[in-house]
Amino acid sequence: MNKAILFLALLCTFLLQAQSEDEKQIRAIYDAALTEAKAYDWLNHLSNQIGGRLSGSVQAQQAVEYTKEQLEDLGLDRVWLQPVMVPKWVRGTPEFAYIENKPGVTNNVPICALGGSVATPDGGLKAEVIEVQGIEELEAIGRDSIEGKIVFYNRPMDPTKISTFSAYSGCVDQRYSGAAEAGKYGAAGVIVRSMNLRLDDLPHTGSMSYGETPVEKRIPAAAISTNGAELLSTTLKLNPNIKFYFKQSCKQYPDVESYNVIGEIRGSEHPEEIMVVGGHLDSWDLGDGSHDDGAGCVQSMEVLHLFKKIGYKPKRTLRVVMFMNEENGLRGGNKYAQVAKSKNEQHVFALESDAGGFTPRGFSFDTDEANFEQVQSWKPLFEPYMIHLFVKGGSGADIGPLKDEDLVLAGLRPDSQRYFDHHHAENDTFEHVNKRELELGAATMASLVYLVDKYGIIKSKKVKG
After folding, report:
1. What is the pLDDT, as a whole number, of residue 2?
2. Fewer Cβ within 10 Å of end Cβ, the chain: N or C?
3. How high is the pLDDT of residue 423?
4. Strand pairing of 221-224 and 111-113?
C-alpha cells in the first residue's frame, strides 16, 4: 500500500515538473516572439517591395529568391528549392463592366476576372442577365431561358454562421464550377457575387475550373463586388430586360517552372522523423497577399527563428515549406508530397497557417482519437495566451496531400471574422495586418511544434495479416 502511494506521489511530482518545464518553455517562446521576431519585417518586404505573387509571375520568383535568402541567413542546417511546374495566368488590362437599363443609360459596377477565366471578345460581352441562387437552379430553368444570356450567381455567404469559413464553403461552388455548369446550357458568360460578408465595392477573385469543357466552348467568368451584386439584383427586379456588359483580357499561358522554398533544422535525436510548418508563397494579384498567405509563410519561418533564438534544438527534423501555387492549382503541395513519398520520408506532423494573420484562437486537427486526446491534454498550457480552440477538422490545402494514418495534420485557426473582408481582394494589403497578432500566431505555432517534438505522436497499431 505504501509503495503504491509513493509511486503515485512520484508520478504526480514528475507530471507537475514536466508541466512546469513546458510552461517555462512556452513562455520563452512567446516572450521571444513579442520582442525579437522577424515575421513582420519579412512580411513588409514581401508585401511592399514585391507585392502580389501570382504563380508564374516575376513577383512569385522574387518571393522565392527573397525567402530562400532569409532562411539562409537564419543559419539553418539546409535550405533548398524544390522545382515545380505551375500554371501561368495573366489578368491583363483592368476589367470594366456596367449595367445597361436602356441604350445610353448605364451604371458602372466593379468586377474582376476569376482566376483561370478566358477573356471576353475584344469588344467585350453584352447580354441579358438571368439571376440564380446556385448551380442547382440551372437545370430547372433550362437551356431555352439561359442560352445567350449572362448567368448571375447571387447566393451570399450565410451571415448566421459564426465560422466564416463555413459560410465561404457554402457558396464557393458558384465561383469554382459556375462557368462550367452554365456553359452546358449555352450561357454567354458568368458573373459571380464576391465571397465577402460585408457590403463594399471590392470584387474578390479566386480560382475557377472549366472541368472537361473544350477550350473553344469556355465562357468568361468574373466576380462582382457585393454592392454591385445588390445593385444588379435590385435592377433586375425592376426591369428583367436590362443588359450587362463586361470586358476582360485575361490569358492562360503554358506552364512555367517555379519552386517550393524549403529550410530545415535537422533533428538531434530522431532526424528521420520530419515535422513541417508552412504556408503558400503565391497569392492573387489584386492586393499584395499579406493575409493570404504572406502571413502564414512568415509565421512558419518564424517558428524556426524562435527555436534558434531560445536555443531549443528539436529532437525531430523541423522543416519550413513555402508552397507555390496553392491558389490556382495546388501544384506545390502535391509536388512536395510526391517527392516525400518517392524518398520514403517519414513525416509525423504538419502544421499550416493559411487563414490570415489575425489573433490566434487555436488549432484544428486532422488525426485519430488517440493523438487528438494527447493534444487536448496540452490545452491548459495555451489558455494563459487565450488559445482555447482545439477541435477536429481540416488542416490546410498544401499539407493535405501528405495525409497518412501515422501523420498528425493541423491548421492554425485565427479569429476569422475579418478574413473575408480581404480575401482575394485588392485590400489584402500589409496595413491590414497587426504586428502583435501576427507574432502571437507565430508563437502559438512554435509552442505546438515544441510539444509535438517533445512528446512525439502516437502511432497506430497496424494489424498484420
Report:
1. 65
2. C
3. 98
4. antiparallel
> Cell triple for residue 373?
486526446
* pLDDT (tens digit per residue) in 272-305: 999 999 999 999 999 999 999 999 999 999 999 9
pLDDT band at 465 (very low <50, low <70, confident <90, very high): very low
pLDDT tens digits for 408-427?
Answer: 999 999 999 999 999 999 99
Which domains are seen in the chain, by residue range?
23-89+255-455 (3.40.630.10), 92-249 (3.50.30.30)
